Write the structure tokens for this entry.
Amino acid sequence: MPATVATALGLDLADDVVSPERVANALASKQLLLVLDNCEHLVGAAASMAEALLRANPTVRVMATSREPLRAEGECLYRVPPLAVPREGSQDAEDPLQYGAVRLFVARARAAEPQFSPDGRVAETIAAICRRLDGIPLAIELAAARTTALGVEELAARLDDCFQLLTGGRRTALPRHQTLRATLDWSYDLLPEIECVVLRRLAIFAGSFTLEAASTVAATDEIAGSDIVDCAANLVAKSLLAADLGGATGGGIG
């Protein structure tokens, strides 16, 4: 991490070992915004780099993208939400194009087929597809690219097999961004074994569930109920589960 940052910023640190502190000291008089992208597989190194920079130079700003927090001193989190989708059966569904998810789908479909121009019925089907895909931009882009071969109606009918269907991302994209399955595999493979086990067991739930229900399903002689709470919290932090804290019964997880 420090060597990569030093190279990107053109720092000449001779042949000595490049540490976060050396990079930070070399930037002590600079005003800069450093962007660390896709940190989830190097969270510890990214946190050390960020803290060293901020200690050496309080005017430096670090923007890090990651599927889990760095847990670095001074860190402020902004969770990137999915794109907005129309609620099923809502009045707003009459104008689906006001929603970001639908606009993205149409833009990517037009990039593949410039004549693509959805009428009202097709736009409603696109809105349903975007709801099924939870407003996730990569999934929507992969789905839209399939419209030239399948059409919107056939695409919607085949979404039950979305891991087989949503493939064929950009050739130049990272492998984990070329299919929906590869994206989830990337996140899953970064988990410690206990979180892998708990996530597999929680997959039995088709919708939201409570921590009590999670403990009933996932706890064993080897994995205590308290471990389930810790694992669920970690999976929420890593964006593999979502917490709903506003429900009338105290919220849930999904």
